[in-house]
Amino acid sequence: EFVPQERVMNLIESARELGVPVKINSVVHGGSHAQPPATFGTEGFRSVLTASGRGRAVAEADPLDGGPTTAACPVNGPFITTAGEAVACCGPLCSSERRTPVHLGHVGQEGLSAVKERFDRSTVVLAMRLMGPAELARLVAEHGGPDVVGRGTFASGSACEVCTRLMEDPEAAAASVALTNEAGLRRRLRTLELLTGLGTSMVYEP
């Protein structure tokens, strides 16, 4: 949560006091998709949970036994941290001390255009967005790389968890880059990108 929940609720209550209609779209994952966050069930609100877009993919995903959801990564552009680092992630890897394939460089040193182009050209990032981290991890293991999905247990079962495990394992990360750059898979990913019309945007950490 990059904006404290208290500020969000203050905004909601202020809007309601002014008579401004409030609608909340909440993204949930894993087993939690059956119930919206309890905080949003305040008096005067009606909870309506409708899975759509990538939310539908998460809700309908068939989780691996004891492993992560097979949903795709929702990141749609470089995330710029307060330190100026650009990361193709809006979660745990933004604070990772390890340089991973989703780290795109420093905007102060290389400029926004360079990191944006790196995001757009990265086949690893594209695979995360189209196939999901769990599917990429499965392919890595299938092609002789480390099996990060089958190794150990997962705390939340989120796509972020398997992505972090995949990217922070040097051997698995290198295998992900090599695999997604193979001509056949790269061509398949770029075709899917055109068919789905994936867009990108820049996000800055407040």
* Poorly predicted regions: 27-39, 62-66
Distance between the termini: 11 Å
Q: Number of DSSP strands?
A: 4
* β-sheet strand percentage: 5-15%
| Structural shape | globular
Provide the helix percentage. Answer: 40-55%
Work out the helix count: 9
Provide a descriptive summary of the structure in words.
The structure is a single chain. The protein has 206 residues and is mainly alpha-helical. Helix content is 43%, strand content 5%. Strands 3-2-1-4 form a four-stranded mixed β-sheet. Strand 1 and strand 2 form a beta hairpin. Helix 5 crosses helix 9 and helix 6 packs across helix 8. The longest helix is centred in the last third of the chain and has 14 residues. It starts with a helix and ends with a strand. About 9% of the residues have low confidence.
Quick description:
The protein is mainly alpha-helical. The chain has nine helices and four strands; from the N terminus they run ααβββαααααααβ. The protein has helices spanning 5-17, 53-60, 107-110, 112-121, 123-130, 133-142, 159-168, 170-180, 183-196; strands at 79-80, 85-87, 103-106, 203-204.
